[in-house]
Prior knowledge:
Blueprint lengths: L8 E7 L16 E8 L2 H8 L4 E3 L2 E5 L9 E6 L7 H16 L29 H5 L4 H9 L6 H6 L42 H19 L22 H7 L9 E9 L3 H5 L1 H15 L9 H9 L17 E9 L2 E10 L3 E9 L8 H19 L5 E7 L15 E4 L6 E3 H10 L24 E4 L2 E4 H7 L6 H16 L3 E4 L1
Amino acid sequence: MAGNKSYTIVEYFGGDDGYRCGYCKNEKGNFSHGMWSHTMTVQDYQDLIDRGWRRSGKYVYKPIMNKTCCPQYTIRCHAVKFQPSKSHKKILKKMSKFISKGELPTGQDDGEPMDSVCEEAGPREPSKVSHAEVKCPVVTDIQKEVAECPAITGVQKEVADAVPTGSEMPRNDPVSVPDGRTTATPPKPGMGADPSRPPCRKAKDLRKERRIQKEQMRQHADGVSSIVSPTPSTPTQTNQPKNLEDFINESLPDNSSHCLEVRLVRSNPPSPQFKASFDASYQVYKLYQMAIHKDPPDKPSESQFRRFLCDSPLEAEYSPDGPEVGYGSFHQQYWLDGRIVAVGVIDILPTCVSSVYLYYHPEFASMSLGSYSALREIAFTRHLQKQSPKLSYYYLGFYIHSCPKMRYKGQYRPSDLLCPETYVWVPIERCLPQLENSRYARFNQDPDAGDARALKDVGRALVLYRRAVMPYAAYSRKRKSSSDETEVQQYAGLVGQDCAERILLYRA
């Protein structure tokens, strides 16, 4: 975003052998490409998830879609255009009833299982790279190498450009509970008794509007600018549908039996609030894994929790045109009556909020917290979009049509699925008929379309070799006996041109 250049540095592992699938439980049916990210900019990760990648801790993986048992399609929701469905309203009302009256539904809701943490993929440990080698690459060699490789004229500027990282400012979480004043979509004409007449309005609204108009006319006559008086908001129409924020605010009434508060804390680098609540958050995760995923008591260890849900390659970044909280990795903590009952792990990126994982106290398994947290995160995205207009999407991770229990993500409309071959977004309504016929599908209907962002010259891919940044063409001349060109070509094809020319691929 601006300042001194931050690098993305990765080690690519190639396509793994088959491993256990967390969805259909096939012991050897899940296949993916993987790489370990030592550090990553939010823009690079945005570009990677727009090519089908996803992170679990610092491990970034991409399913081999035409080979894996349960193809996993990246899904995004248009948060600004989202309207809650009947089932979503029912979930929000259930939460409102619980908060206001203290009535906890009985039984367990098993309709929204979370994405499995990618531990089955067996994220490999990174190479034993020294901290200095990763964090302090030098760029002195690149000027000479660029001269020898004229096709790489833009690399020197890319390496010299600045991206600052800021420190986390202690703050409460006003952004996590957006207000309900977003203008709702107007009703369709013809829904009233007489479509040619305007909808009925309350008499008090009409009186208020006339009073404001008279005041503005008086000020204008006196030579006072109308800017002195704030422009009145459009009177609420009695037949306007409630928007998402209206329903959420209903679930937070005053003088209720319970108090629900959502706090946003930065997980990387860990903020003071994150550190103070770490133990309580971990205990909820441990109970969740044992009750919901049937893990033995010794499996949900603190190190596992840190590795998959706290560690992140994304550093904190701030931008003048970005959200106030900045970009990077966060935990959204749901505090009920002073204790943590659920945690949503999210990434805030240049154009989206990306959902990573949710875990909750098993005591509240009947509250449909998977769907409730998604609705809260959509509302949070809409709030951030008011601060940063380009941040308008909510990524729900992967949509897995072959796993019926994972289809609930397709209920957040309007939404798109990512074509696994051309990396263009296609409305989900056009994708579902194809997925009914085949687990793997190419959504782009243009048979001649290809990967528009494919890297045509692997020599342009950047590598980090002996603490020096250089294009692969220069690296291959230094290492004439190197036999890794096939691997680098595969990697460059998977990350695409933009990332290949920015990300530093570590070469031992």
